[in-house]
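S.,

Sequence below, as promised.
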Amino acid sequence: MSLRHAVLGLLASHPATGYELTQKFDSSLSHAWHASHSQIYPELGRLAESGFVEVVGEGARGSRTFAITDGGRAELSRWMVEVEPTRTVRNETAVRWFLLFLLPPEEQRVVLERELAHTAAEEAMLRELDTVIVEGGGSPFHPTVTLGLRTLPVMRAWLQEQLDALDG
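The prediction came back faster than expected:
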C-alpha cells in the first residue's frame, strides 16, 4: 500500500492536520496499515510539493490543516483505477501463527489466548465505531468497519478451535 495514497484518501473525505491523520489511521485503517507521525508529516510535505495537497488552515503551535487538491484527487483516482494493488502483506501475527507449532502446548495456549483477547477487543472497538458511524449519518470508511465486523468473528472462532485442539 502506498502511504501517499492512503493519506490522499483520508484527506479526500475531510481536511486534517498531521495529528488528525495519525488518529484516522489508528481508528480506521489500523487493520491494514499503520502510519506514525514521523511517516505522515514528511509525506504531507512531499504531497504539498507535488501539488496534491495544500494548506487550508493554520492553528496553534504551527499546526497546519491540509486538504486534497484537484490534482491529488486525480492522482488518487489514477492509483485506485489504473495501478494493480500489491497483494503481498507483512503480517507479524500470521507469521507467529505459522510458527506456532514450534512452541510447546502451554506456550501455544498463551499465544492463542492473547490473540483471542486482542481479536475480541478489536471487534468491540469496531462495534463501537459502527454505532458512532451509524448514529452520525454514515462515513466513507464504513465498508471497512463492516468488513472487520464480518471477519473478526471468523478469526475468533478459528482461534477458539486452536485452543480447543490443545485440550485434545
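The chain is about 65% helix and 5% strand.

Coffee later?
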